[in-house]
Amino acid sequence: MKAAAIIVSGGSGSRMGRPKQFLPLAGSTVAEWSLKCFDSMAEIQSIVLVLGEDALKEHGKRLAVGKVKVVAAGPTRMGSVKNGFAALPKGIEVVAVHDGARSMITPEIVRATIAQAAKSGAAIAAVPVKDTLKVVEKGNVSETPERARFWSAQTPQTYKYSVLKEALEKFKDEASATDESQLVERCGHKVAVVESSYENFKITTPEDMTMAEAIIAARSGGRRESRTGFGYDIHKLVAGRELWLAGVKLKHDKGLLGHSDGDAVLHASCDAVLGALGLGEIGIAFPPSDPKFKGLASKDIVAHTLGKVKGAGGEIVHLDATLIAEEPKLKPHYEKLKSSLAALFGLPESRVSLKAKSNEGLDAIGRGEAIACHAVATVLSAFHTGT
Ligand code: MG
């Protein structure tokens, strides 16, 4: 069964004062926790993330990696789902539509809706309503319906491709529907209910953030904590080499000598991240003595390091790098270097800092014979391996 997901994160989030999808949540963001769940599932072949205009500009490029495609939101929720649907690759048989703000989604719930939709055409995650419901008219209760009849609809709402296609085409001018299920129902299809979890709530108000943080902490045994790692690197500055810093090739008549491209910012940053995880340093995985690593691109070292972070179930919360260089002058390049560093580590720029100092003419760095870099990384993880 070829399955795909559409994650809708295009809302304006008026109840939070600003769009909630990229509010920081447990070392990552609201939408990225949702994305992470689907990304971790091998059976999901493709993910279309639907983002509002500002989020698309700020986070689109960073998140469009691997099986994730990023598209622009429509004017309504239904418009966003249609945009997401149009971007699905060919051959998809089942589509799970998910609210990006339901960050606490689990692979088990997604799987249950996929299995049911594959069987019967349409299945939504839902939970029985806990409160007694009242129908209120002009400030007074006019009716108390029987509670057992009511369920709260969640997402994912999962459909056979043909079923969702039919609903989106038949009601293509529909603007007010708050979920796809109601359109599928109006087409005459049966929509099965898969009992989900109360943890799969939609983050809507500020107190929901507190609950979401608590749930993430509880899921990692309540032991999620932040640790700090430090990294340092220095390379000789010599003629006849390209100058690579933070993954950017800078125009200069000298470059850093090394077995790899000599990118001291990336090496120090990776060592800082590995330091926070308690996993040594980059020379262990990439020994300079091994000829097969000659000419290694430092972005491969970053990819290796990010694999270690993922393997530990961690998040990089912040990265701060300080270059020490007499030449070239790096201030004019701060923005470019910072953007590149953030992009390579998959972080929003707000979680990255990059600056440079001269060595006041002292020592080898002061004589322009070398460039060094110090980096500090903060990583949030359950740290199951240690105490
Ligand atoms: Mg190095």
β-strand number: 18
CATH superfamily of the largest domain: Spore Coat Polysaccharide Biosynthesis Protein SpsA, Chain A
**How are the strands of the biggest sheet laid out side by side?**
5-4-1-6-10-7-11
* Elements, N to C (H/E): EEEHEHEHEHEEEEHHEHEEEEHHHEHEHE
Query: What portion of residues belong to β-strands?
Result: 25-35%
Form type: elongated
| Associated small molecules | magnesium ion
Which secondary-structure class do the elements indicate?
A: alpha/beta
The overall pLDDT average reads 93
Percent helix: 25-40%
The first-to-last residue Cα distance is: 42 Å
- Number of helical segments with 4 or more residues: 12
Uncertain ranges = none
CATH class of the largest domain: Alpha Beta
Topology:
Layout: E1 3-9, E2 24-25, E3 28-29, H1 30-39, E4 44-51, H2 53-63, E5 68-72, H3 77-86, E6 94-99, H4 107-120, E7 122-128, E8 135-137, E9 140-143, E10 151-160, H5 161-170, H6 181-186, E11 192-195, H7 206-219, E12 225-239, E13 243-245, E14 248-250, E15 254-256, H8 264-277, H9 282-285, H10 298-311, E16 315-324, H11 334-344, E17 352-357, H12 363-366, E18 370-381
Parallel strand pairs: 1-4, 1-6, 4-5, 7-11, 16-17
Antiparallel strand pairs: 2-3, 6-10, 7-10, 8-9, 12-15, 12-18, 13-14, 16-18
The structure holds magnesium ion.
